[in-house]
Design brief:
The complex is a heterodimer of chains A (453) and B (192). Chain A has 453 residues and is of the alpha/beta class. Chain A is built from 16 helices and 19 strands. Chain A has a five-stranded parallel beta sheet with strand order 5-4-3-6-7. Chain A has a five-stranded parallel beta sheet with strand order 17-16-15-18-19, with helices on one face. Chain A has a four-stranded parallel beta sheet with strand order 11-10-9-12. Chain B is an alpha/beta fold. Classes of the chains: A alpha/beta (453), B alpha/beta (192).
Chain lengths: 453, 192
């Protein structure tokens, strides 16, 4: 009896070096402009080619501007980095969806959307949120640049086999609770190192009833509890999503279904939560494990530290739903997909944002942006006083111009609230898209439930 | 690998990669030049004006090649720039009770030794070096030991045999994989 993880891993072992250390074949490799230049330099120095160029796909996302993408990037270093990616892809024969291309977008948004991400695969990228792709029943995880070079040169990695962890959530979710709230809740219970050394499988009706995009949001945040990655079993939802993008044979589909975790397979660690205990969440500290229910106070976060409170300027007894805010950011590889934009628009429709709040909607890809425009979501955002921008990682890590000013408070649908993450001195509160949308309307942290029908 | 060096103790848990190297410094296309921006937000006030409270700026610790950090060191992003910044600053070993997985791998790949010791041992070591700015630590990879002669501290650490071999013999994982290409091609033929 084996787990989904074990079945996929075992199929990809080219060779075992020592106990627990394997050479693992990688099916799909994604690259972007920030963590790949040094890897290409390494290939050049060693006189190596890209071993299997058709298994690598490139996009520019981390430091692309989200306004006037048709103009050259003003920041010289960013311009140079994006240009390097273009040149490297041309030289080494790697397909690139660069700025302006209809398929460009955040790497973890476009991979699944283009049908590149498929069940049973091993998938890597020089980005920790590669865990996103685990939603398809794939082993997907982030790697460093030395490993990017290894994959480019050999399509393989030398890896330690991680331990296995089962996270089970059953029951009916409360009103206003989204996939983001579920994962913020899990992280608030396990801590940022609760998953270190583990690869997670999410099981239970809460995940099986989620759409693929919702599963991606959950798996995306696996790294925020320290796990290498997280995955969800393969079912009709998975297959329908992939099938609507690429042609699949019956054999292939049957093969995928057989990969699912066998009944009675053992995990090294198991934890279980009740769906009914989860309410809309928001983080109050400087690590993703500081999530609390919106009606609670700062000290209700189990993992809040004095250092974090000092940085955030919060007192322990502060009620977070009284907190005034300055910015709202809706986007990122966590919550920049079409369903996220639809959910936020539903809240905003017919309302205006609070005057003092600056609100940005940054679609995760060109395709998401086009879809949003087709559905008229852009108008809803713009009418409410939001900016509707062009795709990229944007204010999630603020490598481009989309920086939150020092001291300002931003309710953000991204994945990290580290000190200075969204700009030097910026203070980040992580939430779901509907909480961010509701908060933009009132100008303070707001439970979105009352805006839902 | 044997090391005898001063220490920079950072008694902070969950030191994330955005603190090791903030995103604005990820725009280089080389592996060098990151050291001066290591811990940028904690180390400087503005325009590289040093914050004297931060241990990297303690003149007594100048030349240190070892960092001791709180639990869950290097959590967050996969950016190898964090490891490049540590290596470029001149650090040869980082000691904590647990590393975040990706960062640990990145340190290995840049010949910086990541050492994990038990939480109670870490706390003893941390306190000693917080109080003794000029004290020396001895790290021995071959025997897998961390010692402080003056205090009698002496513990063994675990390391995966393959990683140890790579560091000791200068084996490069990438060269190892490049040498395996024929085997990899055969694997593809049989499995795809």
């Amino acid at each position: 009896m084996k787990t989904l993880f074990d079945k996929i891993w075992d199929k990809h072992v080219v060779k075992s070096i020592t106990e627990g250390v394997d050479v693992v074949f990688i099916d799909q490799h994604f690259i972007h402009e920030v963590t790949s230049p040094q890897a290409f330099n390494g290939l050049r120095e060693k006189g190596q080619k890209v071993f299997r160029p058709e298994r690598t796909l490139a996009t520019a996302d981390h430091n692309v501007p989200t306004i006037n993408q048709h103009l050259p990037i003003k920041d010289k270093a960013s311009f140079h980095q994006v240009e390097s990616l273009t040149n490297n892809c041309k030289e080494f024969g790697v397909e690139l969806f660069g700025i302006g291309h209809k398929n460009q977008g955040i790497v973890h948004v476009i991979g699944p959307d283009l049908g590149k991400t498929q069940p049973g695969m091993t998938i890597v990228c020089g980005d920790s949120h590669t865990s996103t792709h685990g939603a398809f029943g794939a082993i997907a995880f982030g790697i460093g640049t030395s490993q990017v070079e290894q994959v480019l040169a050999s399509q393989c990695l030398v890896l330690n086999r991680p331990k296995s962890m089962k996270i089970e959530v059953n029951g009916t979710l409360n009103k206003g609770v989204t996939a983001k709230d579920v994962v913020l809740y899990i992280i608030s219970k396990l801590g940022t190192e609760g998953g270190t050394g583990f690869f997670v499988e999410y099981v239970g009706n809460v995940f099986s009833e989620m759409s693929m995009e919702e599963r991606m949001t959950v798996c995306n945040m696996s790294i925020e509890m320290g796990a290498r990655g997280g995955m969800v079993g393969i079912d009709e939802v998975t297959i329908n999503y992939v099938q609507s993008r690429v042609h699949l044979s019956e054999d292939k589909i049957e093969g995928w279904k057989a990969l699912n975790t066998d009944d009675g397979a053992e995990f090294d660690k198991s934890v279980r939560f009740n769906a009914t205990d989860i309410y809309p969440m928001i983080t109050v500290g400087t690590a993703p494990d500081t999530g609390i229910t919106i009606s609670k106070t700062v000290d209700d976060a189990a993992f809040i530290t004095e250092k974090a409170k000092k940085y955030m300027g919060f007192n322990g007894e502060d009620k977070i739903n009284q907190q005034e805010i300055d910015f709202v950011f809706i986007g990122s590889c966590t919550n920049g997909r079409i369903e996220d934009l639809r959910a936020a628009a539903e809240i905003i429709k017919g309302h205006k944002k609070a005057e003092k709040v600056e609100a940005w909607v940054v679609p995760g890809s060109m395709k998401v942006r086009e879809e949003a425009i087709e559905e008229g979501l852009d108008k809803i955002f713009i009418d409410a006083g939001f900016e509707f921008r062009e795709p990229g990682c944007s204010a999630c890590l603020a490598m481009n111009d989309d920086k939150i000013p020092s001291g300002a408070i931003c309710v953000s649908t991204s994945n990290r609230n580290f000190e200075g993450r969204q700009g030097e001195g910026a203070r980040t509160l992580l939430s779901s898209p509907i909480t961010a949308a509701a908060s933009a309307l009132t100008g303070r942290v707001t439970d979105p439930t009352k805006y839902l029908n | 690998m044997k090391l005898s060096s001063k220490v920079i103790p950072l008694n902070i848990e969950n030191i994330d990669t955005d603190q090791l190297i903030p995103a604005q410094f990820l725009k280089l296309t080389t592996k060098k030049g990151y050291g001066k921006n290591l811990f940028y937000n904690w180390r400087y006030f503005h325009d590289y004006e040093p914050n004297p409270q931060f241990e990297l700026n303690n003149p007594l610790r100048e030349g240190a090649q070892v960092i001791i950090g709180g639990n869950n060191f290097g959590c967050g992003s996969s950016r190898e720039h964090a490891a490049w910044a540590i290596a470029d600053y001149g650090i040869k070993a980082v000691i904590t009770s647990q590393f975040a997985d990706i960062h640990k791998g990145n340190l290995y790949n840049n010949n910086v030794l990541p050492i994990e010791i038990k939480p109670d041992e870490l706390s003893v070591l941390m306190n000693y070096f917080l109080e003794n700015s000029s004290a020396i630590i001895d790290v021995d990879l071959e025997n897998q030991t961390v010692k402080v002669e003056e205090s009698g501290f002496n513990v063994k650490f675990e390391i995966a045999p393959f990683k140890k071999k790579c560091l000791l013999e200068g084996v490069d994982e990438i060269q190892y994989l490049i040498n395996m290409k024929e085997e990899i091609a055969e694997f593809e033929l049989n499995n795809y």
